[in-house]
Amino acid sequence: MTGAIDSDDAVRALDARLRAHASAADEIHDPIEFATAPAASPQFAAAVRGVARLERCTIPRLRRMLVSPTHLDARLTAFFSTWAYERYWIADRLDQLGAAYAAGDTAAAAESGGGVDRAAVRRDRRERVWLLGTAITTNLVGTPMVAVHVLQCLVDEWVLDEVYSALAGEVPDARSAELIEDIRRVKAEHAEILRLAFTLRRPAQGAGLRLVGAALRRISWPAEAGLGPMHIGALRRLVAGDTASLSRITERINALGLGEHRVALLAPRRSTVLRIRRVK
After folding, report:
1. Per residue in 96-135, pLDDT tens?
2. By C-alpha distance, which of 16, 12, 67, 40 is closest to 173?
3. Three-state secondary-structure class, residue 265
4. What number of CA atoms fall less than 13 Å from residue 239's CA on the CB side?
5. Which of 106, 143, 211, 221 is most enclosed, with most CB atoms within 10 A?
6. Residues contacting residue 36 through CB under 8 Å, at least 6 positions apart
7. DSSP-assigned beta bridge partners for residue 136
8. CA atoms of 202 and 67, how far apart (whole Å)
9. CB atoms within 10 A of CB 124
10. Which residues are within 8 A (CB) of 30 and not within 5 positions of it... i.e. 6 or more apart?
11. CA distance linking residue 212 with residue 144, whole number of Å
């Protein structure tokens, strides 16, 4: 039994957002063109490429959702297909942008990965085996897993919103600023659709609500991207640069009806940048 599943207004709001999103012709796959070749900016390039890795790690998450009860929700399955497609092309554009500003930066080029990424191959193999257990476990849990998956994606989008906001403050030229703003517009639409979907799918009470709350506290960011130290450092700098960013993410999370939480910035030696803690 979910919290607001029978709310006609909420369903209409979600449907309207989904129709608008599906009909929007976002040309996020166009090649990036500069009037003049940009000057090298290794710091900006590392940050952009780190974000690109995060956008590109959508497919493993989509795999897990499609073997769970989430795939039975027609609205969400349709949206997540478009969501994964758009995130793929966003990553492609960010890779182009990072390459333009990393000219001559051999360290960034090495970490961004030329040749075969053997760690990624190993992760993919583990993922394929782990999917079998995920399919069994999530289908035994049932419909609360839909809210869990939506919540995980929603929190990721909210953190990335702060990352893109910080990135927009570092753009070296007007063309890059225009690109980041276009991406933020698409990402804002993703976040609003996920927020509306969570409102509809959140369990009202009982074990389902407790499971969703526990899943919130297990979220670590960034997840699943296989980032190296250079990219982790760049993302940490973007998140921690504005002291109000964690407060804004916390405020959004606490508006979801899952109790009081706070977003914690972890020690620099960790590969995880953010965790979500319960406020006691």
Report:
1. 999 988 875 545 444 555 555 666 667 667 767 767 777 7
2. 40
3. strand
4. 27
5. 221
6. none
7. none
8. 20
9. 12
10. none
11. 7
Structure-token pair, residue 237: 């700098």
Residue 39 near residue 172 (C-beta atoms within 8 A): yes
- Inter-residue contact 215 to 154 (CB < 8 Å): no
**Parallel, antiparallel or unpaired: strands 220-221 and 261-265:** unpaired
Task: Report which of 138, 160, 134 is spatially closest to residue 56, judged by C-alpha positions.
Answer: 160
Q: Cβ neighbours of residue 233 under 8 Å, at least 6 residues apart?
A: 46, 268
Question: Which pLDDT tens digit goes with each residue over 16-29?
Answer: 776 666 555 455 55
Choose among 233, 249, 175: nearest CA to 50. 233
CB 210 within 8 A of CB 254: no
The partner residues of 264 in beta bridges, in order of sequence, read 275
Residue for token digits 């990072």? 98
Q: How far, in Å, CA of 264 to CA of 273, rounded?
A: 8
Q: Is the pTM of this model over 0.85?
A: no
> What are the two backbone dihedrals, phi and then psi, of residue 279, each rounded to the nearest 5 degrees?
-90, 120
